Amino acid sequence: MELVCPAGSLPALEAAVDNGADAVYIGFNDETNARNFGGLNFNDKNALRALERIRNRGRKLFVAINTYAKPDSFARWQAAVDRAAGLNADAVILADIGLMGYARERHPELALHLSVQASATSAPALEFYRQQFGIRRAVLPRVLSLKQVQQLAAASKVELEVFGFGSLCIMAEGRCHLSSYVTGESPNQNGVCSPAKTVEWRNAAGGLETRLNGVLIDRFAENENAGYPTLCKGRFIVDGKRQHALEEPTSLNSMALLPELKAAGIQAIKLEGRQRSPAYVAQIVRTWREAIDEVLQRGADFSVKDSWRDTLSKNSEGKQTTLGAYDRPWQ
Amino acid sequence: MLAVSKSISRIGYRFGCKILPLLPKWPGEVAFIKLLNTQLSEELEDGLFDFLDEQILEVTVTDLGIRLRVSKRGDQFVRAPAGVPADSTISANSADFLAIASGREDPDTLFFQRRLSLGGQTEIGLTVKNRLDALDRSRIPQWAQRGLELIAAELAAVVAN
Amino acid sequence: MQLALGPAQYYWQRTDINQFYEQMLSTPLDIVYLGEVVCGKRHQLRAADWLELAQQLAEVSDKQIVLSTLTLLESNADFNWVRKICDNGQLLVEANDLSAVQLLAEAGLPFACGPAVNIYNQHTLAHLMSLGMTRWTVPVEMSARQLGEVLNACDSRPEVEVFAYGHMPLAYSARCFTARHLGLDKDNCDYRCMEYPDGLPLASQEGEELFVINGIQTLSGEPTNLLRHYKQLCELGIDILRLSPQWQQMEQIIDAFDCARRDDLDTELLPPGVDGYWCGRPGLELIARSGTGAPA
């Protein structure tokens, strides 16, 4: 079981490698990747350094080019694929059908992973991408229950990667326009959900207010933990009730399911968080390295240690975690 | 080393909490900005902090009452003019800032726990965070890094008490 | 310009569904899309019932009847539903995810792609056309400018359909938000979304209408309304305008668009709605407030 870890900067990549990542995924510093934030990600110089450090330590480097290419600047996305191929990256993570066609044709040796942003949730959808583009692996959307993941793993002809930990998208990835509806920018087209330039935090009479393009998303009382300013985790009025109508600030943590995921033949576990600091990467990678090693050793006897749970909770949105869609009652 | 860092942080912290809030201006501001200019000269030349051009970032260390106001002009960080409101603000207590600086804690984590707050233009604060995260820590001497870690750990305990 | 009735997003009673489509037969619509696109648990009409209804409508009407597939597939049961629709052997199918595309392409059948299939550029469009796609409903967040860029860059183009009126589907989740609101598990939801034939409005704490909850789906709080952009839609060479079913006033909406294509455009016939996406702005904005033209 491969541990696939996030890095938004060289120090984060080093933290991942030092703490036991088998593979690290990065993005270029533009809208070709789904964590397109100011000051984050890799220019060519740093991408080369990243590769060098990965190779020195015998790990793998994946490059996420996982947004949908715009019609007037398709060349930018093509160039990103060319850059990743030029780096000799171990795989590129793609979502756009047109871009996959380009990668397959221009760089036949380059391994393609299907991004979670492509939202492939069934065996025939995976088969589509395998037949058309020869994808080697697919990252599964965070909308499937454990049972559904198991069924899909049994039917799939490509390797499957699932999310282990991190900020939780509760909507099917690549099929959520909540951000662009309010801000004009979306994960699909701009590589960003709730872009920072539209976010405002303000102390007001009712508590800490967070607004997105002027729209009030939530008010936090003094002792309440906060989350990212995304629409799916705001508090709204439905039928006269003020509530977290979609989801609370929380992070996904599927560590408890590791034995089942392993038994189902899941080949890789992905950790989310390229936008986070090296301190986060170090803590969660170390924790997951230990857990995966334990599962490999003990199989079904595995149980989640309190110290692991504490570390993961501490680093979570709203300081709490959930099994998310893996667990039917959550749905 | 351990004992030294313990006393520095304990004594320094208590002293700082009493004295610093009484001063009209943090006396270290000039020196700190000078230090930033030396340490980040390469990044400044590469234009990695251009997003701060003519913008004012205000960093407040809540427990010590330190208020640092930085802007950037040309290839240099400069002190921001007094009386002009900041475009972006970041505040936390000294222990949490040190925890971030020493790589003990992730700023988003502290933010979720309401220990770090952002105001004004979020994008400036976020970009500063990301730029600082990306700095090559191997450029900081080992002893200084270690010292920072120890003080950060100690201060976390002091403030928690 | 052809007018299409998109697939119904909400969960209605069987008798109401039948009655609704019967009423639609006497409207000037050219195309009617039918089928469950939101939740595979909804069982007032199962796949076979939708097929039967579609065939009946096709027999008595000269409108084109198209079958739409589920958007978010999770279980094998969901997939079997999609397979039955794709295997109907008679009517055009609108694929709303890549599973349906795979089945239809394998069978060598022509197909349409719905707005939740991510086609954002000419290369993706060309690839899917090479597999048999003949009609494209544009993603709701795409602007007129981007659409023009795609179409200009295409060697051959499919029929192009734009979501022109109605609450826009914005997101799909594993979680049922209607059940969550009512304090129920999705597995024991009692199909209560049927109590909300126009969905469940969600407003900000300051009372701003943001979204509409509809089971696992989230829709825009305001309807999109591109009536004021009718001229531009024609100039871009759009073939079909999609009007999304709603419980009330559907005939007025159809009539308003029908007037436009008979050179009798009256933008006052419908509530203003929003047009931000079309204008390259946040979706919830209203840019062209009056008249018939929009800022470029």
UniProtKB/TrEMBL annotation, chain A:
Q: Which domain of life is it from?
A: Bacteria
The cross-references to HAMAP family, in alphabetical order and at most eight, read: UbiU
Record-listed [4Fe-4S] cluster binding positions: C169, C176, C193, C232
**Its biological purpose:** Required for O(2)-independent ubiquinone (coenzyme Q) biosynthesis. Together with UbiV, is essential for the C6-hydroxylation reaction in the oxygen-independent ubiquinone biosynthesis pathway.
- Keyword check for Secreted, yes or no: no
One family name in Pfam for this protein: Peptidase_U32
Q: Give the pathway annotation.
A: Cofactor biosynthesis; ubiquinone biosynthesis
Please list the residue ranges that the record marks as compositionally biased, kind Polar residues.
313-323
In which family does this protein belong, per the annotation?
A: Belongs to the peptidase U32 family. UbiU subfamily.
Q: Does the keyword Protease apply?
A: yes
Q: Which cofactor does it need?
A: [4Fe-4S] cluster
Q: Which taxonomic lineage does the organism of this UniProt entry have?
A: Bacteria, Pseudomonadati, Pseudomonadota, Gammaproteobacteria, Cellvibrionales
For region Disordered, the annotated ranges are 310-331
Task: Keywords in alphabetical order, please.
Answer: 4Fe-4S, Hydrolase, Iron, Iron-sulfur, Metal-binding, Protease, Ubiquinone biosynthesis
Tell me, what is an example of a GO biological process annotation in this record? proteolysis
**Species in which this protein is naturally found:** Microbulbifer marinus
| Name of this protein | Ubiquinone biosynthesis protein UbiU
Q: How does it assemble?
A: Forms a heterodimer with UbiV.
GO terms of molecular function: 4 iron, 4 sulfur cluster binding; metal ion binding; peptidase activity
UniProtKB/TrEMBL annotation, chain B:
UniProt keyword annotations, A-Z: Ubiquinone biosynthesis
Superkingdom: Bacteria
Region forming the signal peptide: none
Keyword Protein transport among record annotations: no
- The residues that cross the membrane are none
Q: Name one Pfam family in it.
A: SCP2
Identify the metabolic or biological route this protein is part of.
Cofactor biosynthesis; ubiquinone biosynthesis
HAMAP family, per database record: UbiT
The family annotation for this protein states: Belongs to the UbiT family.
Please state what the protein is called: Ubiquinone biosynthesis accessory factor UbiT
State the organism named in the record: Microbulbifer marinus
Query: Which gene is annotated as encoding this protein in its UniProt record?
Result: ubiT
Automatic annotation (TrEMBL), chain C:
Q: Which Pfam families match?
A: Peptidase_U32
Q: Which GO terms describe its biological process?
A: proteolysis; ubiquinone biosynthetic process
Residues that coordinate or bind [4Fe-4S] cluster: C39, C176, C189, C193
Q: Which cofactors does this protein require?
A: [4Fe-4S] cluster
Q: In which pathway does it act?
A: Cofactor biosynthesis; ubiquinone biosynthesis
The record's listing under InterPro entries reads: Peptidase_U32 (IPR001539), RNA/ubiquinone_mod_enzymes (IPR051454), UbiV (IPR043693)
- Keyword annotations for this protein? 4Fe-4S, Hydrolase, Iron, Iron-sulfur, Metal-binding, Protease, Ubiquinone biosynthesis
Kindly state the subunit structure of this protein.
Forms a heterodimer with UbiU.
Q: What does this protein do?
A: Required for O(2)-independent ubiquinone (coenzyme Q) biosynthesis. Together with UbiU, is essential for the C6-hydroxylation reaction in the oxygen-independent ubiquinone biosynthesis pathway.
Name by which UniProt lists this protein: Ubiquinone biosynthesis protein UbiV
Organism field: Microbulbifer marinus
Q: Point out the gene that encodes the protein.
A: ubiV
